Structure formats: structure tokens, C-alpha cells
Amino acid sequence: MDADHRNYGRLIGPIEDKMIRSIWRVVRDPDDADDAFQEALVTIWKRLDRISRHPNPHALILRICVNAAYDVLRRKIRRRQHEELKAIKTEIADSTPSAAERLSAEERRNEIVRAIGRLPRKQAEAALMRFVQELSYRDIAQALDCSEATVRTHIRRARTRLEQLLFHLAPVRTRRCLNDE
Questions:
Q1: Is 80 exceeded by the pLDDT of residue 20?
Q2: What is the fold of 99-180?
């Protein structure tokens, strides 16, 4: 115990203020500074023999203090990031569709494809290019080798027929909107 007091008085006592100031310059928070100082003291105590044999023990002790301060900051940042990530994860609901939702969507998609297949060939081609590939009327006209007016007619007729074939899939509000067009 007496040797511990001597080592403290010889190595740490003379530079204790410098140790605290060097830690404070890094962390700038009283609680973090206390934590870093305690960690530095633990590290110094564990490596006391090596520090005593070092050519400049005070410089090594100050280096340990700065490293302890940076360690405290890193942990604080990691903890904050972890908490933010946890908060984000709880805010974002699981948007992955359930098996029933995927099956229902697949059935709707198949029903729509079957309905498009029941359209006349030009209407079906025009509808696929417009609604699925989102092509312009001009691009569709070039692809079908007809005028834009003809393409618009194909699209209008395809839409009308698809509304009739798929009436049961459209919500009431959508039905009213489609009729208003």
C-alpha cells in the first residue's frame, strides 16, 4: 500500500492537473471527463511497471489520458447512434407484405393480365405500352405504326373495357374518379 502512495505521488500527483486538462480538451463534458479520468487511472495502474520504466513516464501518462478521453467519446457516439437507429427502427413499420398480401397481389396481377389478354390485340398492346411501360402516345404510335389519335382511341377503348372486366377490383372512390374522366 505504501508503494502505491509513492507511485501515485511520483507519477500522477505532479501532473494530475495536466491529466484532467488534457482530458477536458477532448471531451468537454464533466461526466465524460470523470469517466475518462477514471479509465486512465485504471489503465495507468495496470501498466504501472511499464510506465515506471518508460524514459518519459509523464508523457506516456498524458497519452493514456488522451486515449481514454477519445475512447469515452467513441462510446458516447456509438451509444447515440445505436439509440437513434433503434428509434428509427421502431418508427418504421415493417413494410414487407405478408404472405397473404403477396398472394392477393399476385392474384390481382394475374387477373389484370388475363383481362388485358381478353382485349383486341391493338388495344392490349397500346394498354401495355401506356400503363406498364409508361410510353408516350407518340412512342406507342411509332411502335404500332399508326397515328397518335388512333393510339388514344385504342387506350380509351382498352381502359373502358378493362374497367368493365375489373370493376370488382376498383374501390368505390376509384370507380367514381374513372367515370369522371
A1: yes
A2: Arc Repressor Mutant, subunit A (1.10.10)
